[in-house]
Amino acid sequence: MVEPPGDRILVTGALGQIGTELVSELRKKHGNDTVLATDIREPDNDRYFPEGPFCNLSVLDGEAMEKTVTDEGIGTVYHLAAILSATGEKNPELCHRVNVGGTVTVLETARDFGLKVFVPSSIAVFGPDSPRIAPQKATLNPTTTYGKTKVTGEVLGMNYFKQYGVDIRGLRYPGLISWKAPAGGGTTDYAVDIFHAAINDGHYNCFVSEDTRLPMMYIDDAIMATEMIMQADGSSLGTSRAGYNIRGCSFTAGELADRISLRIPEFTCDFNPDFRQKVADSWPNDVDDNPAKDDWGWEANFNLDRIVDEMLENLRKNQSS
Ligand code: NAD
Ligand code: AKB
User: Fold this and answer.
1) Per-residue pLDDT, 1
2) pLDDT above 80 for 81
3) Domain co-membership, 170 together with 180
4) Residue 199 is part of a domain; what is its CATH number?
5) Torsion angle of alpha carbons 245, 246, 251, 253, nearest 10°?
6) What is the mean pLDDT of residues 138-151?
7) Which of 144, 187, 282 should be mutated for ligand 2, with most atoms under 8 A from CB?
8) Which atom of ligand 2 is nearest to the CA of 146?
9) 177 alpha carbon to ligand 2 midpoint, in Å?
10) Sign of CA dihedral 121, 300, 311, 9
11) pTM of the entire predicted model
């Protein structure tokens, strides 16, 4: 492997749900100027990083990626740019182009410049034939375009690791629940949107059925897992290094609505499934994350009640400030 041009950090897709929080955490740890936030979009007032550098960068532009990496002295890339499942089902060509094409751009650049790379995967790698509590090692037969691009991402990542020694690390995030940025066009977005609706309208029209059970995780746990796997000794990472299962909790949409009602008694929720129900039904109810626990010490902190308390408290604080 060649020596990287520097030790700064580049985050792609930084204006999204995860990037908004990951950039802040990385800056707290490594210093504001060390972390270059990038996205294809311009930041707006809600999503802006005044404390450190931002530049426009499309992950489909390999030349711009190489120039940014060399000019900015980058050593590590957190590659978050993607099209999520619901948007991906509506526009499969875009989903494939951005998710697979973008990952190839990042991996090619990583190989040529000796970069360390984080590429997130998803519970979407599993299909309807997976056990309902999905094990780390399973036959991956996703039925969504998004899920297929995530499987390809894991396979590509392992190939670049084995063939070229690229230090690739990845996690199969569950549906992520956060309050700072909106969810970005996924099937699990209901578990974020419901909190905004409960506080603002007292009512939510949920697009999956009451008994839909999916693996979920609070954003703080997801950021912690990301930092842990990136800091882990490379020799402790096994054959799952491009996509470790990580578990937060598992609950139905009805259980989530009930826990919110316990805290906001006037809150009501209807369940009117749309095209996203089919996507949700193709994913597991829960995941087994023992390999992540064994290999690099993973353990989540947030259960459903703690997530609901944190979400309501932070959204209310945010509204009144
Ligand atoms: P998001 O949709 O909120 O953000 C993605 C960002 O990528 C957006 O800001 C968008 O502008 C940007 N983008 C799109 N096309 C781009 C391009 N060509 N070049 C550069 N930027 C581009 O997504 P997120 O929720 O932050 O997800 C980040 C990663 O984590 C994705 O790989 C996603 O598949 C994965 N993931 C997320 C979740 C979740 O619940 N949020 C769960 C599992 C996996
Ligand atoms: C989505 O719903 O598309 C994402 C994911 C689980 O990958 N949140």
Assistant:
1) 75
2) yes
3) no
4) 3.90.25.10
5) -80
6) 98
7) 187
8) 3
9) 11
10) negative
11) 0.98
Nearest ligand, CA 215: 2
Residue 70: which H helix or E strand, with range? helix 62-71
Q: Are residues 23 and 38 in the same domain?
A: yes
Is residue 48 flagged as an active site residue?
A: no
Structure-token pair, residue 120: 């997130």
For residue 76, pLDDT over 80 is answered with: yes
User: What is the percentage of the chain residues whose pLDDT exceeds 70?
Assistant: 99
Domain range for 124: 8-174+218-245
Is 295 a member of any domain?
A: no
- Asked whether residue 125 is assigned to any structural domain, the reply reads yes
Whole-angstrom distance, CA of residue 109 vs CA of residue 69: 8
Q: In what order do the strands lie in the sheet with 121-122?
A: 121-122, 171-173, 244-245
- Considering the domain boundaries, does residue 297 fall inside one? no
Starting from the CA of residue 184, give the closest ligand.
1
The rounded Å distance from CA 11 to ligand 1 centre is: 11
In a domain, 290, yes or no: no
Distance CA 103, CA 59 (A): 8
Ligand 1 atom with minimal separation from the 123 CA: 43
Q: What is the Å distance from ligand 1's center to 183 Cα? A: 9
* In the predicted structure, residue 133 carries a pLDDT above the cut 90: yes
pLDDT for 47 equals 64
Tell me the pLDDT tens digit for each residue of 89-100: 999 999 999 999
Q: Which of 18, 47, 125, 171 is the best mutation target for the ligand 1 pocket, counting ligand atoms within 8 Å of the beta carbon and taking the most? A: 18
Q: What's the confidence (pLDDT) of residue 102?
A: 98
Residues with Cβ < 8 Å from 183, sequence gap 6 or more?
17, 176, 189, 192, 193
pLDDT higher than 90, residue 269: yes
Question: How many distinct structural domains can be found in the chain?
Answer: 2
